[in-house]
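User: Sequence recovery, please. Input:
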């Protein structure tokens, strides 16, 4: 694998692990990756990698500072609440869509 391809792969991994960029921003970098000049690729990789390291160190420090895992438990609870809410929204959307389809079918009778 060429050095350029290795750096591109590193950037893709760094983007996947990045918590602070939006999907649109990540998509921008992925889409434009083949066209980036080498120096820009290296600069973006360095910036995102450094930010990811700072974020990971901060999270690790917060977890270590709380040995009874209250933070982790709170985060896990929040994630589970968000997942449950998203699932309920998806179910509601499916129900509404099914009702609309049924109404259209009844109109066509």
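Assistant: Recovered sequence (109 residues):
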């Amino acid at each position: 694998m060429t050095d350029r391809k290795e750096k591109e792969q590193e950037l893709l991994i760094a983007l996947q692990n990045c918590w602070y960029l939006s999907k649109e921003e990540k998509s921008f970098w992925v889409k434009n990756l083949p066209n980036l000049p080498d120096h820009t690729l290296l600069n973006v990789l360095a910036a995102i990698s450094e930010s990811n390291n700072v974020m990971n160190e901060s999270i690790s420090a917060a977890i270590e500072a709380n040995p009874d895992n209250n933070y982790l438990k709170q985060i896990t609870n929040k994630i589970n609440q968000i997942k449950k809410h998203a699932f309920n929204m998806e179910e509601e959307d499916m129900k509404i869509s099914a009702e609309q389809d049924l109404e259209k079918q009844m109109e066509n009778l």
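The two ends are 62 Å apart (CA to CA).
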